[in-house]
Amino acid sequence: MVTEPTSPAEEEALPFVAPCRELSPAAPWRWFKMGLQDIRRAPWQSLTYGFVMAVLIFGVSLLSWFYGRAWLMLSALCGFVFLAPLSCIGIYAISAQIERNQPVSMIRTLRAAFKRYLGSELVFALVLMVIFLLWARAGSVISIFFPDEANADVVSLLTYWMVFIAVGAVFAGLTFAASVFALPMIMHRDVDTITAVLTSVNAVLRNKRAMLVWIALIVLALLLGMATAFLGLIVLLPAIGHAVWHGYLETIDASQFPRHEVGITAVARTPDP
User: Is residue 49 included in any domain, yes or no?
Assistant: First the structure.
């Protein structure tokens, strides 16, 4: 099924943001379970993505540890919080093919990730890059206050780390709110980046408890993955990506926006509620 291009009059009639549903705090657990199910249905495609992302994270961490400082390594790892959503488009494409009963094709997946929505991805990447650069600058400024004394007291160390974590949490929270549902919506429906970002922020603000649970699950999964010498990330990263896709479909009602004319999401899901 291919939809006709939206006319100017129809574009004006579109809502400012897509409406969202109210979620229970247990919803993220259900999304994560569905994400693991998608891995079982498309194992090598999903785990290939997980392997590539795990290697990148390991490589950046290794370089930062040996050639930089501890704060640089933390900054680089936190940078993945900002850039990771862009790498998840391919994961969303895998889930979209599964729910349409299509054979999961890596060619279709890569086309979706690096060609089909490239314009919107670049705009979104620019927004995330600005936020990340601001965060990196803030991190480097804060590092000036790291106690250099050999016998620094505990209070000084705790103060530094509390400020570092607080500043990082502000930027990470802003990025999370802007991105958690934005890229899935861009892939699912023919919308502009600003509408998708505002829809994502609106949904997060209206479902604070569920989103706090989701953030906690993501952080726990990342820590567990790194604690297993980064091997756990090969499974956990694609599981998170698949879960985000299912969370978007459960949270956002984008039915008023037109479908894409071509691509995986140009046709309805099976079934499409």
Answer: yes
